[in-house]
């Protein structure tokens, strides 16, 4: 039972880290240095690759941080709300919407794929309807964020 719980926690931790890839993060090291940049990659030892870095050392184009020196990692930008978008899609496509958080996508009718960029796979009337729901969702999210 304890092994199963540990495996679940480790898997969930990895999934959460994966959602941060490609996002703007802030990092503080155990030496007191702070950096902000776009997270390009992360490994099992929490080593980070960060792009477009600003921080204690000024502007750096790319930085690799050793995970043993990382004190804190913060997500600076608000993540795209896949769950709320999926709920809206579910109203129009009941029982036909699946969230795939590990790949940052929603699958509708097993043939239409939406990400934070919109409809990335699929065509036809259903895809057009999904695109309309996505567009309205993004528009409302921007208004609420202002």
Strand order of the largest sheet: 4-3-2-1-5
**Outline:** globular
Q: Examine the secondary-structure arrangement and name the CATH architecture of the largest domain.
A: Roll
Number of domains: 2
Structural class: alpha+beta
How far from one another are the termini? 46 Å
Enumerate the spans where pLDDT stays under 50 for 5 or more consecutive residues: none
Averaging pLDDT over every residue, what do you get?
87
Largest sheet: 5 strands, antiparallel
Looking at the structure, the CATH topology of the largest domain is SH3 type barrels
Helical fraction equals: 25-40%
Order of helix and strand elements from N to C terminus? HEEEEEHEEEEH
Q: How much beta, percentage-wise?
A: 35-45%
Rg calculated over all Cα atoms = 18 Å
Number of separate helices:
3
Secondary structure: number of strands: 9
CATH class of the largest domain: Mainly Beta
What does this protein look like?
With 146 residues, the chain is α+β, with helices and mostly antiparallel strands. The protein folds into two domains: 2-75, SH3 type barrels, CATH 2.30.30; 82-145, Like-Sm ribonucleoprotein, C-terminal domain (TATA-Binding Protein), CATH 3.30.310. Helix content is 35%, strand content 36%. It has three helices and nine strands, in the order H-E-E-E-E-E-H-E-E-E-E-H. The protein has a five-stranded antiparallel sheet with strand order 4-3-2-1-5, with helices on one face. Strands 6-7-8-9 form a four-stranded antiparallel sheet, with helices on one face. A hairpin with a 2-residue loop joins strand 8 and strand 9. The relative contact order is 0.11. The mean pLDDT is 87.
